Amino acid sequence: MKELWEAYCADKAGRRIAKNMAASGRIVLPFFGHMKPEGITIKVCRAYIAKRSALGRKNGSIRTEMNQLRTALLWAEKARLITKAPAMEMPPASTPKERHLTRAEFDALLSAASTPHLVLYLHLAIATAGRNAAILELTWDRVNFERDLIYLGMKDALRPRKGRATVPMTDTVRAALFAAKEGARTDHVIEWAGEPVKSVRTALGKAAARAKIVGLSPHVLRHSAAVWMAEDGASMSEIATYLGHSDDKITQRVYAKLSPTHLRRASQALEVGRPRLRTVG
């Protein structure tokens, strides 16, 4: 298995997934590395889950590790390095986090941001509902001022990367981007001191502390954007497209309950105390 894992990482060299898997390989490979693909059974998966759980790892982290293993195996099958990727059992998915920012909290956070790169990051995070990596990797050639579009993924990609949608600019983010472009010193939209920014966690944490906001992370910003859209009555398909979901099943599960129009039409059939017209046909 170790050879397949490394071959997959080599094939994806230069992409974030290769870097992530190089790090998680130090955890996954001591357990699975010596095995042949056909030796990775449901029983073996359960043993790995139990071992990681005993060390205090949460289901979400364990699923990420095992999904990376499954990704490498499916790639190996497609590349015809193995005949068939084995079936794998995963731990149950974690309950989605409900934490999101109110508009007032976001305004306070924006006011507390002390650096231009964080201010621009916050505007982009809310206006695009993009993933943290997508925003940090955004380059100016994917910001189209003529069409007012932001390409979070590669413009000519045949298969968009997960969570990398093409979204319209809001007026606010357009103004912020236009001002930032004037002083840009790199190809990356989010930059500081003439270098692309690799992480905003420190700056974000300090701004959150000043604004007295707890439980904040880059993902909370993405979740907040989706919540705002749902609360404003946007359709689940629109929200799914914004989030870069392949379909709206996940979107429905997490955000439908927040929409003021959710099940509203169906509920009209349950009204009592008023006459109903019968349909003849």
Automatic annotation (TrEMBL):
Query: InterPro entries attached here?
Result: DNA_brk_join_enz, Integrase-like_cat_sf, Integrase_catalytic, Integrase_recombinase_N, Tyrosine_recombinase_XerCD
Looking up Gene3D superfamilies in the UniProt record yields: 1.10.150.130, Intergrase catalytic core (1.10.443.10)
List UniProt keywords, sorted A-Z: DNA integration, DNA recombination, DNA-binding
Q: Which residues form the Tyr recombinase domain?
A: 96-268
Q: Which Pfam families match?
A: Phage_integrase (PF00589)
Q: Does the keyword Repeat apply?
A: no
UniProt keyword annotation of DNA-binding present: yes
This protein's superkingdom? Answer: Bacteria
| UniProt record similarity statement | Belongs to the 'phage' integrase family.
Instruction: Name the chain's protein.
Output: Site-specific integrase
